[in-house]
Specification:
Layout: E1 2-8, H1 15-28, E2 34-40, H2 54-76, E3 83-87, E4 99-104, H3 114-119, E5 125-128, H4 131-138, E6 142-145, E7 151-154, E8 160-162, E9 183-190, H5 197-208, E10 214-221, H6 227-242, E11 250-254, H7 260-267, E12 274-277, H8 286-293, E13 298-301, E14 311-318, E15 321-328, E16 331-333, E17 335-339, E18 355-359, H9 361-373, H10 375-392, H11 395-409
Parallel strand pairs: 1-2, 1-3, 3-4, 4-5, 5-8, 9-10, 9-12, 10-11, 12-13, 13-16
Antiparallel strand pairs: 6-7, 14-15, 17-18
């Protein structure tokens, strides 16, 4: 049995927190293979979860066990872990065990920094959450000179696997959403330049300014989910709305520390009809994924992490012949790729030389209009997408892929059956 350390923001309600909890659940599904240890880390200024659940109690026990094990290992001079799984951005990866794995959402842009390319040499294997993330890691190349003055190229040489999130098998907790509009879109995000909320709202208002029956519910926060954050988010939203023309459509704000069950309740609420994501880039796009799993029609671009699940094979019949082709099962917004905004630059994380997606305004407005007018058609597509997501991103399949990648990193070990799900 391998002693595996999971280090990451496992107690935060963030994307990386979700990743860390997925890693924990996947490894925990094979107690015959792994003895799990946990070191929780912060993620920026985001808050930590406070739910009183069986999983939280188990995590607390694992954290206490880890502290005791570290103390004991130090006393006897032994290496405490066989494998580390480090859930964070590459520049924070370290050699914590004989075998080290970096599990990352990577970048939302086209390229990674030189620091990140160098960081890929620190770990023995990388697990990316999407093909988009993998592409950014493996295709970024820097040119330089070695000590002999010869030109060399530096790029990732470490094996990179892709393992996305699984569909959550949790109960739904109903959420009370009061609206006075009969048709409502939903957007879920942390307010930042990357998420493009200003254009999401402004262009929405332009499209529906004369329609009093349409609303946009924004589940957003600036940093945390506290009362202080709610005040700042409300003030920011109010200032944005003051700059908009007179309109009959409505903008609603949902705020707070929703549990997984409550988030599913939000996606499946009778007052929520479709989902919007106009972000410049997503490593995976967990809210889009959860909306897809909830059969919500989705308005978004076909770029970034969501490309892994927003399309599916659809079979149609014409003149007695069946034809199967891969289709984008949402209301697609056209986009262009261009350099990221100066205010979005984040040293070593979002580099100025990289590009990301800019949604086309008229295409976005058209996509909104089509969902509103042809809802039955888009709901049918959403049901097909839900079936595809449930089949391809089941918990069993994603757990098996993650376990296989972890075991593959340990080249010294005999590889057991990982419990892969296959179609016979």
């Amino acid at each position: 049995m391998k002693k595996v350390l999971i280090r990451g923001p496992i107690l935060t309600r963030t994307g990386y927190g979700e990743q860390a909890r997925f890693a924990y659940r996947a490894l925990k599904s094979r107690p015959d293979l792994f003895d799990i240890y946990v070191i929780p880390t912060p993620w920026g200024n985001t808050g930590w979860t406070i739910e009183d659940t069986e999983e939280r109690a188990a995590l607390d026990e694992a954290i206490i066990k880890t502290n005791k094990h570290l103390h004991y290992s130090k006393q006897i001079g032994a290496n405490p872990f066989d494998i580390s799984v480090q859930v964070t951005i590459p520049q924070e990866w370290e050699k914590l065990a004989p075998v080290n794995i970096g599990f990352t959402a990577g970048t939302e842009t086209t390229h990674i920094s030189l620091n990140w390319v160098k960081a890929t040499q620190v770990v023995d294997r990388i697990i990316a959450v999407s093909e988009h993330t993998k592409t950014g890691i493996v295709e970024t190349v820097y040119t330089g000179q070695n000590e002999q003055g010869q030109e060399i190229q530096l790029q990732c040489q470490t094996p990179v696997d892709v393992v996305g999130f699984p569909v959550k098998d949790t109960e739904v907790t109903p959420v009370d959403i009061q609206t006075d509009t009969e048709f409502n879109f939903l957007s879920v995000l942390q307010w930042s330049t990357r998420k493009n909320l200003e254009n999401t709202i402004s262009w929405f208002v332009e499209e529906f300014k004369d329609d009093a029956d349409v609303g946009l519910i924004v589940k957003a926060n600036v940093m945390r989910n506290s009362l202080v954050d709610r005040f700042h988010t409300e003030r920011r939203l109010k200032k944005l709305k003051e700059g908009l023309p007179e309109h009959k459509c409505k903008i609603y704000l949902a705020h707070g520390n929703f549990t997984d069950e409550e988030m599913l309740g939000l996606y499946s609420n009778d007052n929520v009809h479709a989902f919007i994501n106009l972000a410049h880039g997503e490593g995976f796009g967990l809210p889009i994924f959860e909306a897809a799993a909830s059969a919500l029609p989705i308005v978004t671009t076909n770029w970034g992490g969501q490309k892994d699940y927003m399309s599916a094979d659809v079979t149609t019949k014409s003149k007695g012949k069946k034809k199967t082709r891969n289709r984008f099962l949402g209301s697609k917004v056209e986009h262009t790729l261009a350099k990221i905004q100066p205010e979005a630059v984040w040293e070593n994380v979002l580099i100025a030389e990289s590009s990301w997606s800019y949604a086309n305004k008229s295409s976005y407005k058209k996509a909104l209009r089509e969902v509103r007018k042809n809802y039955t058609r888009f709901k049918g597509q959403a049901n097909k997408l839900k079936a595809s997501v449930e089949e391809n991103f089941s918990e069993d399949k994603q757990n098996a892929k993650f376990i296989e990648s972890v075991l593959a990193a340990d080249t010294s070990a005999e590889q057991p059956n990982t419990g892969q799900v296959v179609t016979l």
